Amino acid sequence: NEVPTVAHRALKNELYGTDPEALGYPIYHWVSLIAEPGAHELGSDLRISVRNLDQQTSDQETGIGFRYQLPWGEGVLDSDGDALRDSWERSGYDAGGDAVKVDLPELGMDPLRPDILLEVDIMEELERPPIPSEPSKPGTFETAQAMFESAPILNPNGQNGINLFLDTGGSVPFVNKLRMKRGRGNFYSLKNRYFDRESRGEIFHYAIWGNRSSGRHTGLSDGEEHGGAPGNDFFVGISDLDEEKYYTLRSQVEIFVHELGHNLRQQHGGYVGGGKYKANHLSVMSYTWSFRSVDNDEKRLAEPTCAPIYWADRAALELDGAAPPQMNAIVDYSHGMAASLSERQLEEAKGVCGIPIDWNHDGEIKGTVKGDTNGDGSFRSATSDFANWRFLDYRGPKLGGLWEYRGYADD
What we know:
With 411 residues, the protein is an alpha/beta fold. The protein has helices at residues 86-91, 140-149, 186-194, 197-200, 222-225, 249-263, 297-302, 307-311, 396-399, 402-405; strands spanning 6-12, 29-34, 45-48, 66-69, 115-123, 163-167, 171-172, 204-210, 219-221, 233-237, 341-342, 346-347, 368-369, 382-383. Strand 5, helix 2 and strand 6 (163-167) form a beta-alpha-beta unit.
């Protein structure tokens, strides 16, 4: 059925000076629309597309369409889609129907704005813990929260973005190396001792900010471990790494929200993978963005991306790979705007988002060449951006994480 819509609220996208003609799907504004779909049975699956005045129609294949399943009853209604029932956000979470275990209204939860609840226990005796806030300067966790506050999501309650609630008051004993493998390892031993599963297990993500990983990881999520399903656990392990680059504010925030992104079902190349180093996946989930601010010029040249959007600065062009003189700590997931790339037909003058790129590394910007746009060592791929914010999956705690669900987390 076709129904009229009414514009509710709008949010302008500055694009950081990027030429819209150089983008595959430029977003000038985000607009929330109100429509009355009419009466439908409980549990009905609604598939929604929008036709603009120019007759363009949103397409679910490109991730622009919408799908929504009506609840089976008022008691399970989740208006903002954050896997927290409206009744919990209004009256508190009872964990079993006997008594309120977590006072969600007291914590600032709102049924009309997405909320993410995350407990972060910080390991004792760390040489380099998360950077604390100062009176005029936010720290690691406050900067991460600001990223979610600035998410391009317009909510009925008048507040944009996502509320990332962080409980960072807990700690765990020092262990040299954290292990998280198929639900086993000392991460889960610590979680079993220091995380209140009974009260929080279905609604809180859990993380440990630790010393280092037993593998070659700066962090790890159980969502990443089981192939991109929604996760509920992750850790950051950088305190004992040799390179100083891991200890800047921006680097810490990038690690933290990258692993949280895996919990929210985002992969390195997007929701469906596609390579860890995609030049046109404009997201902190991409390895082209991880630690870019502290990499050397040669590495930035070898792993191109859209510099103005990475730096959130229209003047940041990374000429010869150089970082801009003034660095901010603004971090972001992708909005899905970059143009697709075919590795067999890359126009060097267009590059990514209109910034020229020497794809074949011959020292010249010329015509159409072959190149590697996702770091897989071949020239056979077609790569695309992916709208992380549109596809965040909040169900990790509700599902219990795959490994815990299978009963592997008792080791």
